[in-house]
Amino acid sequence: MLLFQSAPEGIEAGCDEAGRGCLAGPVVAAAVILPKGFYHAKLNDSKQVNKGNRDELRSYIEENALAWAVASCSPEEIDEINILNASILAMHRALEKLKLTFHTIAVDGNRFKPFGEIPYTTEIKGDGRFLNIAAASILAKTHRDELMEKLHLEYPMYGWNTNAGYPTIAHRNAIREFGVTPYHRKTFQLLPKQLHLDL
Question: Is 194 within the bounds of a domain?
Answer without folding.
Answer: no
